[in-house]
Amino acid sequence: MADITNPNSSSQTPTSAVDAVPAKSKQPTVLRCMTGSLIAGSVAVPLYALTMSIAQSFASKPVHSDNITVIKITVAVRTLVVGMATLATGIFAMAAVGLMLLGLQILIQKLTKKTDTSSGV
Hints:
Blueprint: H1 17-20, H2 30-60, H3 68-119
């Protein structure tokens, strides 16, 4: 099936992950991984502070209503807001840790590859 949005595309679907990656993509390096980890971590820290601030603000202001529907909607909205802030914080924190570990893995692979090639000569 041809891609309607791209008339120049072929009708073949990629058969593997290697075929799906464009040839222009760059391989990850230690510097790129650590830079990405630093950026993701620097976004995660203020998001964590924002999440805690929102949660404390909601906790310090109780709902003053006798209507059970108002209370339930308020609780649902507060839970949704805190949950979304927590989700964003978690995503950026996991991305930071994952990129840092990927950089460490690439570094270890480069070091072991260098020692393997030098000992085989």
